[in-house]
Amino acid sequence: MEKNIQMPKLSAKMEVGVLASWNKEVGEKVEKGEVIFEIETEKVVSEVEAIESGVLKKVFFEAGDEIKVDEIIAVINCD
Amino acid sequence: MMKFINSTSNNVYYNLAVEEYIFSNMIDDDFLLLWVNDPCIVVGKHQNIFEEVNCKEIQKNEVMVARRNSGGGTVFHDKGNLNFTIITDYNSDNFSGYDEFLSQIIKLLNEIGISAEKSKVCDIVIGDKKISGNAQSIKKKRVLHHGTLLFDSDLDALRTMLKPADGEFKSKAVKSVRSSVTNIIDHLGDKELDFDGFRNYVLHSFFVNGIDEIKLSEAEIEKIHELEKAKYTTWDWIYGFSPTFTFKKQDYFNNHQFDLYLVVEKGKIKECELKSKTLAVNKIESLLLGHRYDYCVLSDLCSEIEDFADFADYLF
């Protein structure tokens, strides 16, 4: 089953975040709890973990892109 | 309850490993760390180090350079700078960002007559000059906040290392924002305080009811040294973790006009295009391709071609 991964809201005031780096590539297996990507916003680096296991199917942004909160960043094919 | 962990090391790589170790493994308490480094340059996690510092000058002068786990830009550390780290729980619903951490520091500075205040999102200033830069790292349900406190730092010492290479860099990396800075010691008025006195004052401000200190075990220190060696001292982390970038340069090398374009990914030259009417372009492109964008490495490679040894100087 496909699930969207969205830009999380890391604090009450956050509106955008920068996708700082991808830890996984398209086609790679992702376990629940593993870090998929990192966000950097106002000098805060946050690791974003997978909520469920699956395979990373599609990504819509690359490292360095600024993304609005709740926007879909990637699609994961869940087990 | 907050606990204090002291680091007596002045080695930036070791101290960064201490931070990470505590952040990842010790999740039941809140922690304060105070640490001081020998002169070094520290870049933010997602910076392109090649755009921020002159890697040729760094290597020629054996300047210590490190990459931290938190965001933001490039900073200098020396023994007049006090680093503090606070590690605590994180909840996105009520996370204030920087305010709850900065307010503690600002309060303790105000109490010794320093008119410190917050500026922008995460700076502490006296007037329009910065005395503290801060950054954070969040993972799982924990946050690590750390910052500098310029007490008696040599503000000019490593500045010459900041001039990047003479060429055009392009990347989506996090860029540094330069600020005017000042030392806290210049604003103490009649108060007599040296660095150690300041450090003790900061420490006692966090522990008004007595310092609750934890000492790391031998086994923990061993693991921290392993992390230091496996990550913080490695080229792959310090240089190779830089985001992908391009480098363009047009110049003359020994009267040979050239036009160079590099794509560097994970610190290695992924693409190399050289245009020149008089240089052996194919030979040089093949020579450089796939290698680390590292001054020492490229100098050695360039020495393999006759009369070409100094070409590496033009790449930085």
C-alpha geometry of chain B: elongated
Overall 3D shape of chain A: globular
Give me the side-by-side strand order of the main sheet of chain B.
1-2-6-10-9-8-7
Q: What is the share of helical residues of chain B?
A: 25-40%
Low-pLDDT residue spans of chain B: none
What is the helix tally of chain B?
9
Give the termini distance of chain A in whole angstroms. Answer: 7 Å
Strand content of chain B: 25-35%
Task: Write down the secondary-structure element order of chain B.
Answer: EHEEHHEEEHEEEEEHHHEEEHH
Which key features would you list for this structure?
heterodimer, A: 79 residues, mainly beta, 4-stranded antiparallel beta sheet, B: 316 residues, alpha+beta, 9 helices
Could you explain how this protein is built, in words?
The complex is a heterodimer of chains A (79) and B (316). Chain A has 79 residues and is an all-beta fold. Helix content of chain A is 0%, strand content 54%. Chain A has a 4-stranded antiparallel β-sheet with strand order 1-8-6-3, with no helix packed on it. Chain A has a 4-stranded antiparallel β-sheet with strand order 5-4-2-7, with no helix packed on it. In chain A, β4 and β5 form a beta hairpin. The radius of gyration of chain A is 12 Å and the shape is globular. Chain B is α+β, with helices and mostly antiparallel strands. In chain B, the strands form 3 sheets. Chain B has a 7-stranded mixed β-sheet with strand order 1-2-6-10-9-8-7, sandwiched between helices. Chain B has a 4-stranded antiparallel β-sheet with strand order 11-12-13-14, with helices on one face. Chain B has a 3-stranded mixed β-sheet with strand order 4-3-5, with no helix packed on it. The chains are: A mainly beta (79), B alpha+beta (316). The interface between A and B is medium-sized, with 24 and 30 residues.
